[in-house]
Amino acid sequence: MPKVSAEYKEEKRNHILESALKCFSEKGYQATIIDDIVKDSNISKGAIYNYFASKEEIYLQLLKKRTDEFFEDMEQENASLTSAGKKLENLFKRWKKQELKEDDQQTMRVYIEFWLYGSRQEDLKSILAARYNRFIDYIVKIIKEGQESGEIKKELDPQNISRIFWALRDGNVLHYSFLGEEEQYRIAWDTIEEMFLSYVKNEIKSGHQD
Amino acid sequence: MPKVSAEYKEEKRNHILESALKCFSEKGYQATIIDDIVKDSNISKGAIYNYFASKEEIYLQLLKKRTDEFFEDMEQENASLTSAGKKLENLFKRWKKQELKEDDQQTMRVYIEFWLYGSRQEDLKSILAARYNRFIDYIVKIIKEGQESGEIKKELDPQNISRIFWALRDGNVLHYSFLGEEEQYRIAWDTIEEMFLSYVKNEIKSGHQD
Amino acid sequence: MPKVSAEYKEEKRNHILESALKCFSEKGYQATIIDDIVKDSNISKGAIYNYFASKEEIYLQLLKKRTDEFFEDMEQENASLTSAGKKLENLFKRWKKQELKEDDQQTMRVYIEFWLYGSRQEDLKSILAARYNRFIDYIVKIIKEGQESGEIKKELDPQNISRIFWALRDGNVLHYSFLGEEEQYRIAWDTIEEMFLSYVKNEIKSGHQD
Amino acid sequence: MPKVSAEYKEEKRNHILESALKCFSEKGYQATIIDDIVKDSNISKGAIYNYFASKEEIYLQLLKKRTDEFFEDMEQENASLTSAGKKLENLFKRWKKQELKEDDQQTMRVYIEFWLYGSRQEDLKSILAARYNRFIDYIVKIIKEGQESGEIKKELDPQNISRIFWALRDGNVLHYSFLGEEEQYRIAWDTIEEMFLSYVKNEIKSGHQD
DNA sequence: GATGAATGAGTTTTCATTCAT
DNA sequence: AATGAATGAAAACTCATTCAT
């Protein structure tokens, strides 16, 4: 018989994770000290350690939660979209408007840092790889759908295209996140969309005329 | 009247920088401790501080040196190339064969980390921005050349295209550097080249029909 | 909702300051290392840094506390004294018996070192000057009182006399603190009292006449 | 058969000591690093260690040299003075005009610091005491002369008076050296002279009468 | 469950001294 | 004799984690 309800605990957990995201995003994972999270969350150091075993676990949980939420979101949005092309376009739209959600903006920085951090810790590599594959698979599925429906060129390797898609996204986000020039980012993202889709889609009625 | 020659000192400096690169690349900048560099270089802690004022300065000098070398290299290679298209292709070739030079591979990781690190230190932002602009300008110049010669579509904004070029490069390198799958990287890079050049070049006798 | 009472913290603070005084007095400020204070106080290094931001802050707080206590003490003692002459005599008495309080003895050494230290740190000069002026003003007030009541020669400049008073005190303390010959110190101090008071007081019924 | 003349070596030694005085005076003994002396003297670190075994030895030699010079000076000046009163007045005059010689000003700071430093090093205490006694004896001799000639009160203890003389001097110098207010210092010193001499001299035809 | 004081290993940097040239 | 590069033992300070209350 727990003293507090499960919801209470869940809420507190999330509260900590939100503060952690803010701090990690602003100062970086290594530079963030637990006291930063204490200050931002107004939750005591001891309490934080009641919910998470270590700073690293906070990091890991944070990334997992964000990733899960991203896929939930996508699932929901895509449910109503019928073609691969629409789904891809929706994804591009997502990052075009993303700068409005400061939240996601922060997440990106933290993701990229995690990329660095995780690639150096043997024990995190599998987590990193799993997360990466989840993203890859997500696009692979769309590409395959598109190839079946004839929207997307059959000669392309879905795995390869998916990897390129994420490389494009991450490269652009990398620049944007750290240089912060929103207008340029948006223009670049538009151009990238055009370039990517025209490369990937079948010529018939190619380009943009939705 | 120094006791050792300027070359000796230069060599030692480079020796330290090489060890630093190795350490920074393996463990990350923050996680690398001076003793790691001491151990790797076999140079005493005090001696290292005779050559560099701080760990951060080692980092900065390292990046500067690498960047300078990159541009020197490029300058030299491009001197013999007559068209914008050839220059771009040469750049793609460069990163395609890059994995052979382990050295450059390391530098990339460190560059990306610097991106994160620098974007959070007010005093480093200008260095970061200057470095970024140097890279941007380099491609802008090539694009403009190509537009004048008719190789490259005139309606494209050179700045924007340059940014996209580097986003492609960085995104791909980001994935490769941390996932380390060489074969996939090379294939992706080939595809990216095709995508990019076909987007950028004028259709007449368009880029790749090997 | 602190886990410990304010008194507990105050006590701990004082405990650290006392150890610091002991160490600074024995070895000097610069030569004292934090581990000396750790050893003497039996408080961990980290805990010390929970109470004070730096070694220098310990020094500053220590001096401030001692100075405050000195003036509190004086205020109390002087409350019952009605004439300027009595107040001056009381001050002389204070340092005559001072050697009995080992505590004050230590403080003096540390004060003098602070004089040296502070005079070389731009940012400490104002603290030093403020402290000095507080001492000067204290005697100035007494001198003026005495001049009004007729006890003290009207032609003397209170500021100048006050400065001389403290020069006498500091000079004597300097010698005593470092040579440690108590008997000689006490005799010198008696002589100084006689010299000073006979110079300062109006002849009529002057306290000391040879 | 030495390679260089004794004079050359002596000159170099003095050069180092002069630089050391400057540095010690400006930054303090502990805060001065050998490289400060190297920079100021333009003599290499190795060479400095050829002339002195350690930083401490430089300090000690410096103090010794300065003390010796002081007494040589005094001897010379006093040779032409016939009475104890004149000799004392001459001493007062010396410190009154001293601020003009920046050199001596520096020495004072260093002396005071040495007082602190020396009193904490068992092995330096005897050096300190010897130096102190040399100063004490110097005044004792003058006082005794004055007592014999009738200039100075016979009932005074020469040792005690000598100690007080130096306490006055050191106290005043302490304040001046670190607060640096020249005008105030000079006025105080005048007043101290008046106070001291009127206390010490026989009333008949006393030097200073207000 | 919550609190925040305490811990101490770990980190960067300094600097007196040495010694090969 | 002179040089200055090299050494490495300190020293101040940090911060993830623990644990008594």
From TrEMBL, chains A, B, C, D:
<dbReference type="InterPro" id="IPR041612">
    <property type="entry name" value="YfiR_C"/>
</dbReference>
<dbReference type="InterPro" id="IPR009057">
    <property type="entry name" value="Homeodomain-like_sf"/>
</dbReference>
<keyword id="KW-0804">Transcription</keyword>
<protein>
    <submittedName>
        <fullName>AcrR family transcriptional regulator</fullName>
    </submittedName>
</protein>
<feature type="domain" description="HTH tetR-type">
    <location>
        <begin position="10"/>
        <end position="70"/>
    </location>
</feature>
<dbReference type="Pfam" id="PF17922">
    <property type="entry name" value="TetR_C_17"/>
</dbReference>
<dbReference type="InterPro" id="IPR001647">
    <property type="entry name" value="HTH_TetR"/>
</dbReference>
<keyword id="KW-0238">DNA-binding</keyword>
<dbReference type="Pfam" id="PF00440">
    <property type="entry name" value="TetR_N"/>
</dbReference>
<feature type="DNA-binding region" description="H-T-H motif">
    <location>
        <begin position="33"/>
        <end position="52"/>
    </location>
</feature>
<dbReference type="InterPro" id="IPR036271">
    <property type="entry name" value="Tet_transcr_reg_TetR-rel_C_sf"/>
</dbReference>
<keyword id="KW-0805">Transcription regulation</keyword>
